[in-house]
């Protein structure tokens, strides 16, 4: 997971575009948007993170950094 790649997605694409990219990656197709990542797994991780962050920003009125911090907390808890 690379924070700059997630930030780029959040800043450049809307929720609809990101969800379409998620679907394309899951279906082993090339997404219509540029998604950085070494492989499909990393690309999917970046897209899923961007979707979560955009939803959190909208739902809670948070800025990017706050939503990113909340997302990384969730990731740490899930892997510990």
UniProtKB/TrEMBL annotation:
<protein>
    <submittedName>
        <fullName>DUF6952 family protein</fullName>
    </submittedName>
</protein>
<dbReference type="InterPro" id="IPR053810">
    <property type="entry name" value="DUF6952"/>
</dbReference>
<dbReference type="Pfam" id="PF22264">
    <property type="entry name" value="DUF6952"/>
</dbReference>
